[in-house]
Every structure is written in C-alpha cells, then in structure tokens.
Amino acid sequence: MFLRRILISNFKNIREADIVFSPKINAITGNNGEGKTNLLDAVYYLSMCKSYFNTSDTYTCTFGSDGFALNGTYLNEDSTEETIGVALKQGGAKTVRRNGKQYQRMSDHIGVIPIVMVSPSDTMLVNGAGEERRRFANALLSQVDREYLRRIQRYNQFLAQRNRLLKSDAVSGELLETISERMSPDAAYIYRRRKELCRQLQELMVSVYDKVSGGKDTVSLKYVSDLERRMEEGEGDGALLSLFEENAGKDAVLKYTSAGVQRDDIEFFINGHHVRRCASQGEQKSFLISLKLAQFSLVRRIHGMAPILLLDDLFDKLDMNRVQLLMRLVAGDGFGQIFITDSNKVRVGQIAGAVSSEVSFFKVSNGEIYEKE
C-alpha cells in the first residue's frame, strides 16, 4: 500500500495542498522552518490520527483557521483504492473516515495503514524521560496488536479513576479495590507485550546496527518494570494487585498511584554502556535509526506489507558513507514508499537518485509545496 495523493487544508503552516506522490521515493527539500516536516506529519496523521510531534491538536490548525482537513488516497497492491479523511474543527470533535464511512472509534483505524517516522526529535527516546520510551512502545504495539491498544487505553482510564479516588477526602476502600482488580489483568498483558517487544527489537536491531557501525559495536535493550519480579515469579494477572497492596500506604500519603506499568522504561546500551551517558551524537543517531528500522521490520513482518517510511532530516550528523549505506538499506526490496526531507537539495537528489529511478522531488517554501522536474 502507498499514498498516491494527499489533500491538505489548514494543517499547521500548510494552508492548501494537493500533491501526487511517487510509490517509491519522495524527496522534499526547502529551508528549515518552511514546512517540510509538517508535510511528513500530515502523512503520519492520516495513519495514526494524531501528530507525531504534538501531544495535543491545539497547534495543528493553521493560525487564524477554525480547523483542518486531511484526505489521502492510497493504492493497494491489487490497484484498489482506499480513501482516508481526517477533519477537526476548533473546539469540536475529530472525525476519521475510511472510504467515506466514519469510524465510531478512532482507535479502530490504528494499524490500517502502517507507518514509521524517523525524526531528529527521536533523540528524546535516548535523552528524555521514560514517558518518551513508553509512548514509542505504545505507538508501535498499537499498530500491530489491537488488543494491546484496547488494554492500554482501558488501563489508563482506570489509572485516572484510581488517582482521582486517592486524591479525594473520603477514599472508598471497596471502590479502590474494585478498580485495582480491573487494572491487574491488563497490566499483566501490557507487561508481557512490552517485554516481548524489547526482545524482538533487539534481535532485529543487531543486524542493522552491525551494518551501520561497521560491525565493531553491539547493541542491547533492557525492559524495566515494577512488575518484573512478580511476573517472573509467576503471579501473572494478580501481579499488579499484589504490587498495589504493598504500596497502599505510600499511595495514601502521596495521593496517587506510585507503582505500575505507567512507570515502565526501556534502557538502551552500546557495548554494555548506557547510550544516554556514553554515546556520541553520531552514535546516538545511528542507534536510533537502527531502532526505527527494527520497528519497520517488525511492523512489516506482522502486517505482511511494508509500512510507509518517513525520514525527516535523516542526513544531519551522519557522514556520507553512513548516509549512502542507510539509503541502500531502506531502498531494498523489502521497503515500500519512502518520504525524505533535507535542506540540501543537491545532496538529497544525489542520494535518492542513486538508489531508485522512481523519485519525485518537491520543494516547500512558506507552506507552499511545488513538484520539481
């Protein structure tokens, strides 16, 4: 499946756009701040029903507009079309339609059009708080496991209820127990899927990073969870409930839930050393690109088709040898449609043209998008 055409109205700094894409490589150039990344974010939004960069839709509408609309036409391998439309009115509800039919739950759309973004903001996966890595794991698993998406949403709803109850002046012990019992099986499922995800990503990363680093370094991931000891001891669906009982006094004093899968983290290592503390900027970028390409491979393996790949400012801080190597990796037979942004039009032209003859070039200037010959 690939995105054949996109219509954009009032999305960030892009007021109006109607663009036809190549099924293979789409190279997007322009100065920084002109809207290259916003175009990629619009493509991402059509798959995930949210921005890759903003947790809220507050800043997705063009300044002065009352909402935005995105419409994408996709072609399947059998040449049949899929249309996806997303619309949001300021202060109103967001609607998502597939082939003209509105979803009752937006979550039902997640995973329909697999997608992977690689961006400079991914450095937050290394340098940011655990929330960044949980968000990464949740977004990835939500594309490949609908049950995971259902359970993480339900867990978070119950967690919010539990925290409100702990903050109240009159805590109902019976209600607190009921909520905790409802959360515990979901926590066990989330734990198992995240642990398995880390195992799968590490396995896939090894071969990619080996190529990127020239075979001189090894990478590894470690899943960290409050539930680990109890799950490994076989408590299963009751592990979270047991953890809550142990932390009951602490939660009562703090007035929030102090333990659970909402505190999970993933630690990254190169040669046994923490990437955050010991890796150079170039090594961090190589690690993150390898992680994202492992994500790509995992999604492709599960879905049976290549996700759309968005490479935002990929070439910054990488030498040309690594850039060419990475482009050969991503332009192989297992990859599908690729979008690349770069402020250096000569560089992106040389690299894209060297790996595929099916390349479309676009220039972005002040939110206006032009196709180049």
TrEMBL record:
<keyword id="KW-0235">DNA replication</keyword>
<dbReference type="InterPro" id="IPR027417">
    <property type="entry name" value="P-loop_NTPase"/>
</dbReference>
<comment type="function">
    <text>The RecF protein is involved in DNA metabolism; it is required for DNA replication and normal SOS inducibility. RecF binds preferentially to single-stranded, linear DNA. It also seems to bind ATP.</text>
</comment>
<protein>
    <recommendedName>
        <fullName>DNA replication and repair protein RecF</fullName>
    </recommendedName>
</protein>
<keyword id="KW-0234">DNA repair</keyword>
<keyword id="KW-0067">ATP-binding</keyword>
<keyword id="KW-0238">DNA-binding</keyword>
<keyword id="KW-0227">DNA damage</keyword>
<dbReference type="InterPro" id="IPR001238">
    <property type="entry name" value="DNA-binding_RecF"/>
</dbReference>
<dbReference type="GO" id="GO:0005524">
    <property type="term" value="F:ATP binding"/>
</dbReference>
<dbReference type="InterPro" id="IPR003395">
    <property type="entry name" value="RecF/RecN/SMC_N"/>
</dbReference>
<dbReference type="GO" id="GO:0003697">
    <property type="term" value="F:single-stranded DNA binding"/>
</dbReference>
<dbReference type="GO" id="GO:0005737">
    <property type="term" value="C:cytoplasm"/>
</dbReference>
<keyword id="KW-0547">Nucleotide-binding</keyword>
<dbReference type="GO" id="GO:0006302">
    <property type="term" value="P:double-strand break repair"/>
</dbReference>
<dbReference type="GO" id="GO:0006260">
    <property type="term" value="P:DNA replication"/>
</dbReference>
<comment type="similarity">
    <text>Belongs to the RecF family.</text>
</comment>
<dbReference type="InterPro" id="IPR018078">
    <property type="entry name" value="DNA-binding_RecF_CS"/>
</dbReference>
<dbReference type="InterPro" id="IPR042174">
    <property type="entry name" value="RecF_2"/>
</dbReference>
<dbReference type="Pfam" id="PF02463">
    <property type="entry name" value="SMC_N"/>
</dbReference>
<feature type="binding site">
    <location>
        <begin position="30"/>
        <end position="37"/>
    </location>
    <ligand>
        <name>ATP</name>
    </ligand>
</feature>
<keyword id="KW-0963">Cytoplasm</keyword>
<feature type="domain" description="RecF/RecN/SMC N-terminal">
    <location>
        <begin position="2"/>
        <end position="343"/>
    </location>
</feature>
<keyword id="KW-0742">SOS response</keyword>
<dbReference type="GO" id="GO:0000731">
    <property type="term" value="P:DNA synthesis involved in DNA repair"/>
</dbReference>
<dbReference type="GO" id="GO:0009432">
    <property type="term" value="P:SOS response"/>
</dbReference>
